[in-house]
Amino acid sequence: MNITVVGMGYVGIPVAALLADQPNNQVTGIQRNSKRSGWKIQQLNQGKNPIGGNEPGLDQLIKRVIEKGTFKVTDDKTSYKTADAILITVQTPVNTNHQPRYQSLQEVLHDIGKNLQPGTLVNLESTVAPGTTNHLAKPILEQESELKTGEDFHLCFSYERVMVGRLIHNLTKLDRVVGGITPQCTTKGIELYKQIVQAKLHPTDALTAEISKVTENTYRDVNIAFANEIALICESLGADVHQVKRFVNSLPNIPTNPDANPYRNMHTPGAGVGGHCLPKDPWLLKYGLDTYGTIKLDPKIIVASRQLNDYMPTHMKTLLIDALAEQKLEPAQTDAAILGFAFLENSDDERNTPTMPLYHQLKTELASITIHDPHIKQYQDYPITTNLTEAIKNKDAVILVTKHQEYYNLNLDQLKQTLRTPIIIDGRNVYNRHQALKKGFTFRGVGLPRK
Fold first, then answer.
1. Phi and psi dihedrals of 443, rounded to 5?
2. How many Å apart are CA 384 and CA 381, to the nearest integer?
3. What is the CB-side half-sphere exposure of residue 328 using CA atoms within 13 A?
């Protein structure tokens, strides 16, 4: 097959490389040659992986398919005309009003439609609001191409389940849902993905697949919000949320009758929720409901959960202010360091990181604020350093947001000697509170007693 993958990001790169590694496939990656991400074109064509952090198998896979000559990356869109399948993996964020920003998606759809040939499969892997494939993608493609969906070309929504740090594993080992506009479209989608998916392929319609995708992430977001709310309750009452979580999750399941005693899986609370999916997918679900639903509903639990998770960086600031008061320090006299800019440990993925809102809340109140991250050298105008000693030296507080492995290795005695004031704000339960207090630290943690 000739396959074109649009968007060389955390989804597009591994999907394109996996397909290019299959016999008789030729894959073209399309990447906008912009100031921010155009550098990926040259790097990928040199066989180098532009995704940082620990990503097992991806470096070798990219190098192999480039050397084989079955994968190339360009900003030239002429490959649309010769493609048997086109996969769309561009970002679909939401704006400050929680409305989807589909500019990139619409631009790509118009470009594909103008070049679409009969028999081609077009698949949306970008997460979208329920109803988007039918009400946005289908009309644009049909209008631009003058072809009929399900008769002249095939259109599907089939979402990824990737997680940074295990991209290849998730793409190949996890079940995949394939939703076509017609049953014939679904069949074409399954034929494509069975080349790389070693798990079950679930056929359905596009709308059901869209709802399933945003519901998966909304479910997780709601569960994290529940854990965060219990953490705040524990703080108020003076208890340790991690002990509570351990006891809640100790309830045994009865294998012979699991419904009689369902397994509890309380999630881990923390400094905030980041990534491309969880902060936006609940809003996409709500947008689909508001735009295409026939019954007026107010999804209170979903919205309140999203708002609570967005609040957690503010709570980190509250913990810092409380700790400063214990040390009789004014915020305006305080120099602090945030540990972690990436939203996920041991990665370079900064998308929607909770460090961003926390930094913006602190930079106007503290004397100075520095950010350390071992995997990110720079990002826009944020003051990021990869030198941990430089970041924490003579600071009054360290505020841990991301549990990179390097922070587990930080010796408390050495940390105390390096800091000017011994304050730790732990947003990820990396440090032992009792040990820190014993060594003379003022310690605050999400879901932990304050004294």
1. -125, 130
2. 9
3. 0
**99 and 19 assigned to the same domain:** yes
CA–CA separation, 397 and 117 (whole Å)? 60
Give the span between the Cα atoms of 32 and 111, in whole angstroms. Answer: 13
Give the whole-angstrom CA distance, residue 218 versus residue 114: 35
Tally the C-alpha atoms within 13 A of residue 360's C-alpha that lie toward its C-beta.
Answer: 5
Q: By the 8 A CB rule, do 389 and 372 touch?
A: no
pLDDT in tens, 372-419: 999 999 999 999 999 999 999 999 999 999 999 999 999 999 999 999
Distance CA 147, CA 82 (A): 16
pLDDT at residue 66, as a whole number: 98
Closest CA to 115 of 205, 24, 14, 30: 30
CATH number at residue 230: 1.10.1040.10
- Residue span of the structural domain in which 254 resides: 214-305
For residues 65 and 187, membership in a common domain is answered with yes
pLDDT in tens, 315-328: 999 999 999 999 99
| CA 394 remoteness from chain centre | 33
User: Are 19 and 195 contacting, i.e. CB atoms less than 8 angstroms apart?
Assistant: yes
Structure tokens at 32: 């906008």
User: Would 208 be classed as within a structural domain?
Assistant: no
* Residue pair 190/159 in contact by the 8 Å Cβ criterion: no
